[in-house]
Structures are given as structure tokens and as C-alpha cells.
Amino acid sequence: MVKMKEHGNRPIRRLLAVLALVAGVLDLAVIVPALASPTDAAFDGSTGALSVDYASYLSKHDLVYNRPNTNPAYGLTVGNGRTGAMVWNQNGLTMQVSGADLSEQSAYAAGLVNLYSTPGMDTGYSTYQQRLSLYDGTLTTTYDSDRTVTVMGSPNSEVMGIHVDDHRTNVSSVALDLSLWDPSTVTNVGDVPNLDTWKTYSTFADSNGVGISRGQADPNNFGSTLAATVEGASYTSQVVNGSKVRLTITPSSSYTVWFTAASRRGAANHDSVAQARSQLAGVKSTGYATTLNNYRNWWHDFWQRSFVQYSGLSGDADYLENVYYLATYMIASGGYGDYPFHFINGVYRSTGDQTKWSYGYWYWNQRDVYNSFLASNHADLLSTFNRLYSRNQGALKSYTNTRYGVDGLWVPETMGWDGNARGTINSDYTKDILSTGTEAAYNMYLQYRYTNDANYLRNTAYPFMRDVVKFYAAKLSRDGSGKYTMASSNSHETYWDVPGAITDLAAVKSLFPVTIQASQTLGLDADLRTQWQNILDNLAPYPTDGSAYLPHTPPIAQTRNDENVASEVIWPYNTTGIGAPDYQTAVNTWNRRPFPYDNVWANDAIQAARLGLGDQAYNGMRTMLQKYQNYPNGLTANTNGVFEYLGVHLSVVNESLLQSYNDKIRVFPAVPSDSSFAGKFTLLAKNGFLVSSEREAGEVKYVGLKSLYGNAATMVNPWGTQQVRVRRVSDNAIITTSSSGEVTFPTSANTVYVLERTAKPLSAYSSTRLTGTANQGAKSLSGTASTLGLSAGNAVISLRAHANNQYVTAENAGASALIANRTAIGPWETFDEIDLGGGAIALRAHANNQYVTADNAGASPLIANRTAIGTWETFDLVHNGDGSVSLRAHANNQYVTAENAGASALIANRTAIGPWEEFDLLQD
Prior knowledge:
alpha+beta; Immunoglobulin-like; seven-stranded antiparallel sheet
């Protein structure tokens, strides 16, 4: 929200900076909500999943730029699972390249790649489109019909490629530069032991290609080599200077530049130069065509593991669905490294080596990035996160004994790549947080429950769980009533050194039962099990004020951060939710949370979904995007984090469509109440059930279930107490019939079942296949500044008036000089109207102590007596009756008018909805 503008200390109108245009202006895409089709169903009984044409369906969510983007912050993101490139148009095609394993906590990127030609690739054309194809994982830039540049990769490797088809006959030169930044700008944000090695560069240039290395003397064996070669054209190599190398490529109609961000840690003998050479030689030998085919197949297989449709509500839900798929791609395209996709650094940035918070993996932030991927059937992604903690179990256990004198496992909230706690114990915010280990252990347990990997449980998850439980057992003490509690700890970062932190009580309530269960399953630690059960049976209740939970035993301590700590019992601790005995208390806690949506990592909407609050979950996603999705590539300008809100978005959608955290399968537990909403999904439930269902026009059609491991299933009846039956698809045998609120039935591995109403079985629906139409333009989320993609035309500014909770829009097609650096300087705070003379008015926006201006050249006549009557107090938008709209300013009891002659889309219902209350400025 921008601040109320003042002229002469008189408030005029609240102007909100928002980024959107009505459909039909230039080439903005129309987001058309899916039409409800209550007579058909897309379930494929042979596969146990929805029938989806993934290629066409995902194409409607492609990110499209219809004009060249020169702003690095807007760069589109393309990656192969381990290496990522953020791409923009600057002297040809420029990208910053990085990988999760190149430096401690991904602090330092590999460098810049710049491909350019004479004449420029981006000159002398009439049509342009840059498309991030989610289904294929490629970024393709097309200039007219004679130039196409495709960025792709070798799947799940460190090698990426730029394939060029250029059929122009006048190309005289082509070059590729690899470069780095000024060494003097490198700071120790990565908690590195030797900063000098990150300021030191070495290069090579020979007949095999070029390369530039950094961090080669890092004692932790991090470091990287950015290297490149060419397939399909001859080239020469040279070192331009100490931090730049160049390939000069003989112009050709078709060639591929291969580049890699080779890490020392993943290289034999930690030799990233040799690793880079080997990787480039290998991919060049395989060839572009085969590598591209393998790459596409890798992404195709990735997408076909699950499916989500979340659509309707005049297209706004479709926008949320688009963000779901874009966020999934963004995280997966860099999330398969040996180390996690860092919540700030990831593999995508355009900021050189300027970053922050890189000296650790904050569990609070990292969980947002990764925790959705079990439901979307990508346990291998979550395992990357889990491995960070399981591989460091020995170091963590040793440090726990040193710090606490306990034979157990304490996990620092801010943990370095090797398990070090420097970022935690040196901060009052985090040094006394005890509950992080519980979250890490529980996520390992969930990995087992979703994958049925008994070896993982025995060898990895349970030993970690046991040691965390042992730590808690040693640290808990009895209070005056004889109940176990934590005498003093941080209730996360917000309340320091307080008694009875709710996070510690939730840690015990969530982890102790499953650890006891696992010990029984494995036949281990029977003696410890008795002690753990005693603690669980005598645990202090959550602190409350009588109707809602409190973050710790009162009186409530000073607030140090803006976390909604008491709501943590809902998610991620999973101790309450729909149908729980304390459900109303949990709802009250959520409703009274002190900091709603107060940061980029806010998980309020996930908790709303867990409580079955569908409208709140939907509006929560909108709120998070409105506040934090500032750039048309889906990213944020927020400096407190980068990727967390995207991960939160994934979890909200999944939890709105399917819940199974309490071993009960519940479909559509938290969807919007709007009858236009259409939801369809194939997602993975706990205990290994691939669940599919469809809901349209307010009706759930069926629930399909493919049992992967043969466990018993419990489903909540989505039709209340209507009679349902469970049918085995292979032979149509009826397994059970029930009118209960829950149905439990046995399953066999790799067998498909359907839960259906007896009165309206699945066979009552005609069969269909889900498809889509490729997106061709930019999209916007109504009422927000959030857009995806860039349109092609000139700058357009619209004035949108709001009254009586309705929005209407008049387009100011005459506007020029778009405020191009709006995003760069941050959200607009205030506006000034500037008399330019000659019948023109300018709108000047102020943010971060900078001014930028868009000229309203279409306004006429100028409000000539604006100055004479004093500062404007109020504005009216006036319908002139001839298709034009005027802006009328009132001051000192006088009205003066400037006609917006360029306006279209008459606000016909201005009078009907009453006086204008506020205005939004809309830009493409």
C-alpha cells in the first residue's frame, strides 16, 4: 500500500500502485477460468491418475515476454536441476549462472554468460517473443522467423546449452563472453574460511574452449569453474582480461554453445577445471539433438508425477495455478544439487555477488521452499533438504554433547553446510531455539511414510529421530503441577528465553508418538520407549488464554520478530486441524495471530488450509502475491527472502486440494466457496496413495486412489453421510459400502480403487482428457501489482476507480514514458501531478527517495487554473457521454477538469456504484 499523498498538508486520495491492464489492451493475455463441466470426468482407471495432455495443459502457464527485457531483475529463469541461468537482454543475451553446490550456502555464483553478434540478434526485427516453456524446461527467444535462441541443458547435470538458429545472411561476427564481477565487491556473506580465494580468478583459453575459475583454494573444497565450448561452428579462444574470456564463433546458421558451472566438491580430486573440460567434452560428443531430447524427457517425466488444476473466480484462481507451476519449475530446476536450493540464493539471481543471509540455512525459511514436494510426488526433492541434516548427524551430536552435555541431538536453527552452529549461537534471536531438530526429524519420518522405504527409516530417519527425542527427554523438566515442560527456551525468534514455549510442547506432541511407533516397528529401544511414553502422557498442555493458544506460558514476553508462533501447532507441527478436539481453539489462534502475512516467509495461508478455511487460504495466496510478487518473472523485490513465498504458495494449493497428514485422506478440504471454482488433482497422500479427484460447480465427482504399497486406506467421505462404495477398478469388485463419515478399506500394491457415490457413480460421467491452449502474453492478478510476463506494446497507464467494493477501469491510452524503473526502485509510495504546460499532465511517483515520471500526454485541456485555486483536495472521474472520461479536481469549493481524451472502456456504472473512494494506477 502506498502512503496517502498530500498537497499542502491536505490528504487527497489514496493511490495504490498496481500493475495490470484490462484484457484487450495491447497483447495482455485473457485469463479465462475453466468452465464447470459437471457431466464429465478425467480419471483414467488404467493409470490411477487424471488423463492430462501435459504438453498442452502446461503451455497455458508458459511465461511469455513479448518485448525484450533489459532489466536483470526481470530475467527469466531456466535450469536443468542443478545449474540455473537468469536470462535478460543486454548486448545480446546475458545470463547470470549459478548452482547450489558452488560455494558455502550458495553465496557466490559462477559468473556471467553473454552471447552477442554483429548485427545484434535483437536488432532489425518486427516480431519478438521469449517463452519459458515449463513442460520442456526450455527458454526460447524468437526474432521474426529467421532467428531462434534456445536455452536448455543436459538433464540433472551442471551443463547448460544455448542453441542458435540464425538464418540471416549479414552476420559478420558472433562472440560469447564469460566474465566475473569486480573482486573488490566480494564480501564474506558465505561464512567462508578463506575470502581471498573467492576474490582470486584464473582463466584458460585453448582449442577446447574457455573457462574462468574462482574459489580454487577454498579449504572446504568448494569453488567452481565456468567454462564453455561450441558445437556446430568453428571458434577461437582468448583471455580478454583477468576476469573475462571469449569465444569468437564463425557465423553459422545453426550452432550450440555449451557451458557448465562445474563445482569442485563434485569433481574428482576437487579439480573443477578438469571436471568442466570433461563435462563439456561429454555433452559435445552426445550432441545437441540427443541432449535436448533427453532434457525434455526428464522434464516430461517430472511433470507427469502429479497434476493440479486450481481455477475460476474470474481468472484469478487460474493466475494462482500459473504461479504454482512456475514455482514448482523454479525450485525443481535448481533443487537437485548435493546441497539444498537456498531460500535466498537458490540458483537464480542477477545481483553479482551481492547477497545476504548466506552464512546458513535457516530451517524456518528452507521448510517453506521444500515441504510441498511430498504431496506433489517428488520425494527426491525433499530428500535433498533432508540430506543436509542427516549427513551432519555426527557433527551435530558431537556439538550437542559439547554445548549441553546431553547424549542427543540439537539442531541449530541457522545451520552451515557442515552442521556448524555459528549463525545460531551468535544470535540472540536463534541461540536458544530448541525445536528445529524436531522439524528436521519429522520431515525425515514423512519421507519414509510417503515412500515406504524401510531401509531409509532404519538407517537414516529413525536414528535421527531417536537422538532428537533423547535431547528433549534430557532437557524437559516437571513444573509445579508435575507436568513436563521446557523451563526456558526461545519460542522461535519472537519470544526469547521464555517458559513453556509452545514450539517445544508441539515438538514433543508431534515427534514423540511417531518415534515410539517407529521404534516398535523396528524392534529397537524398548527401554527408551517407556521413558518417552511417560513424558508424552504427562506433558503440559499448550498455554492458552482460555480460547486461543499462546506462544508460551504467560505473561507474554517482549516481541522480537513478527512470527505467528502459536499457529505453528497447526502447521508444520501437525498437532491439530479439521476434526481435531481443539479445532475451535486452533481457529481462534489463527484468527488472532498478531502478524498476518507480515513477511515473505509467512505461512498463514497454509495454516488456513489445514483448518479448512478455503476462502482465507485463497485470499491468503492473493495477499502474499500482492505483497511479494513484484517482478513479471514471478520473483520478489523483498530483501528478507526470495523463494519462500513461492514454496508457501505450493503448500497452500496442495493442502487446499488434499490433506493426509493425520493418516486420513481428505479431498478439497479448503477450496474457495465461489461456485465458479474448479479443482482437479492427482497428488500423493501419506502412506503411498496416489489420489485423484475433481470438483466443479460445487460438486466432488469421485475420489480415485492408486495404492503404491498396499497399505490400508482411510478416506473422509467428501459427501458427508451419503452412501458411498469403494470399487476396485480392475474387476469392478465392490470392496466396501458405507454411509459413515470415514471409510477404511484394505488395498493391494499397484492397484486402483474408486470411492464413488452409490447414487451417482463415476460411470455416470462421460470421459474426458484435460488440455489447454498455449499462453501468448502477459497475465495479471486483479487488484494487485502482480503480473506474469511482458506485453509488447507501448506504455499504457490506466486509472481504476474503486467504490462500494467494486472496480471499474478507464484506460489512458495516451500515456507515454512508462515508469520503467518502477520495480527497480521499489513500490510507489506517493504521487505528484505535474503541470507540464501545453496541455499535458505528468504523474510523478516517489519511492526510496527517487522520483520517476510518466507523461500523461493525452490529457487535454490542461487544468490551467490548478495553481490558482490551490492544491487539489479530491478527484472525480467523470463520464462525458461520448466514450471519453475526464478527471475532475476539486479545491477550494471549485471544480476544474482535464479530459482524458485517450480513455476507452467507458465507466458506465460510475453513478450506480456511487462516489469514487480511491484510485489505482495501472500499468502494463
